[in-house]
Amino acid sequence: MEELRVRGIRGAISVEKNEAGEILRSTGQLLQEIMKINQLEESDIISAFFTVTPDLNAAFPAEAARRLGWKEVALLCATEIPVPGSLPGIVRVLIHAYCKTPPQHVYLGRAALLRPDLE
């Protein structure tokens, strides 16, 4: 088994509607999948940096983390750079966590198009 060290874990998910409930549901799903696949507990997580595409402004995705009980985790949200032709309706996250194994990045829904190398 590898030593415990800080690693960055990436993930993204598509959101079909710019509605608070949809953003929070999708973000929660993404975070739960990242936690499951990487065998993480809330106490392993140091911070999470969320970005959303400019078309998603109905909710802060960090709220989904708080609803999952991430009370001691540093959270930050920002808007992605609006690159022409980029995929709309996407929430991205970069999580810093203590892990014993290499990170497994998670891309769900249309966001899987962002990382065809992970298929």
From TrEMBL:
Keywords: Amino-acid biosynthesis, Aromatic amino acid biosynthesis, Isomerase
BP terms from Gene Ontology: amino acid biosynthetic process; aromatic amino acid family biosynthetic process; chorismate metabolic process
GO molecular function, one term: chorismate mutase activity
UniProt-annotated binding residues for prephenate: 10, 92, 107
InterPro entries (UniProt xref): Chorismate_mutase_AroH, RutC-like_sf
Signal peptide annotation: none
Coiled coil regions in record: none
Isomerase listed as a keyword: yes
Pfam families according to UniProt: CM_1
This protein's record includes keyword Amino-acid biosynthesis: yes
Reaction catalysis annotation: chorismate = prephenate
EC number: 5.4.99.5
Name of the protein described by the UniProt record: chorismate mutase
UniProt source species: Thermanaeromonas toyohensis ToBE
